[in-house]
Amino acid sequence: MNTARRYLGSAGDQTAALAFGGIVTAATGATEEYDGTNWATSPGSLNTARFYISSAGTQTAALGFGGDVPPYTGATEEYDGATWTSSNNLNTARKSLAGAGTQTAALGFGGYTTTNVNATEEYDGTSWATNPGSLNTARSYLGGCGTQTSALAFGGYDTANTGVTEEYDGSTWTTSPGTLNTARNVLAGAGIQTAALAMGGYVTTALSATEEYDGSTWTSVNSLNTARFGLGGAGTQTAALGFGGSIPPNSAATEEWTGAGAPLTQTITVS
Q1: How far apart are CA 57 and CA 94, in angstroms?
Q2: Interior CA angle at 113 toward 110 and 114, to 5°?
Q3: Which residue of 13, 185, 201, 230 sits 20 to 30 Å from the alpha carbon of 111, by its own alpha carbon?
């Protein structure tokens, strides 16, 4: 990445990702686009520079919401591939929440105000509506992925690091029997509810641990090359991207994940 940072927002996939916001030495609004090989700084910066920001969407249709300016904010912005435009704020201003879905059908859940939050809000492309289905475990600094009607929440911090995982069906959160093997906070996520990836995070130091979720169970797989927390995540369980974060210091490293069970094809020539 061009700007090393932590606690940033992320969107997109492995070959078309977006990084925005975060903290360098102070909150930043800088936005970068990844094409599968290189990062390019976008001329469009967030209108509200912030860190601990949450996100959803794709590289050309992203959503950034919440975060810490400081103080914590409910500011919501939409990115069209070049410019950020301010939209209606979250109903509950907060930082370190998780996000899922698309720019026109997003989900924001958890986070922190003066205490941990379990509130869930749905975005329709214009406004946020508070859903009566709250997280069973109020927490902040958690990971999230999936869609507005099929989301996954995992890890974070309640009164301590947690590995609790919850599934959302569009109205209700259900606690999964599968918990992360390594309870942690400020981790990154990728994928969907039934095929998710959790990477990095923090316990008492930066972690490289990576785990895959199959809809019921988390399995530890190959670790990140650079242990870090507060990183961005994008893509799918078999084609993910991890970038930025803190070791410490802040990192600009980018790593591509091809999946623990990805097939390998080789040609053998007999001499």
Answers
A1: 20
A2: 125
A3: 13
Residue 196 is encoded by which pair of tokens?
């998710």
Structure tokens at 199: 């990477």
The encoded tokens of residue 113 equal 């105000």
Distance CA 186, CA 76 (A): 21
Contact in structure between 148 and 131 (CB atoms under 8 Å): no
Q: What residue has token string 């990140």?
A: 224
Beta strands 16-20 and 31-34: pairing type? antiparallel
Residue 33 carries which DSSP code?
E
Collapsed DSSP state (helix, strand, coil) of residue 36: coil
Task: List Cα–Cα distances, 109 to 104, 204, 224, 262, in angstroms.
Answer: 16, 25, 26, 31
Alpha helices in the chain (DSSP H): none
Structure tokens at 165: 């995982």
> Which residue type, as a one-letter code, is found at position 203?
V
pLDDT in tens, 64-92: 999 999 999 999 999 999 999 999 999 99
Torsion of CA 213, 237, 207, 9, to 10 degrees: -120
Q: What distance in Å separates the CA atoms of residue 185 and residue 159, rounded to the nearest whole number?
A: 11
* Domains of the chain with bracketed CATH: 9-256 (2.120.10.80)
What per-residue confidence (pLDDT) applies to 270? 75
Q: Residue 255's CB: how many other CB atoms inside 10 A? A: 17
* Closest by Cα among 127, 11, 22 to 62: 11
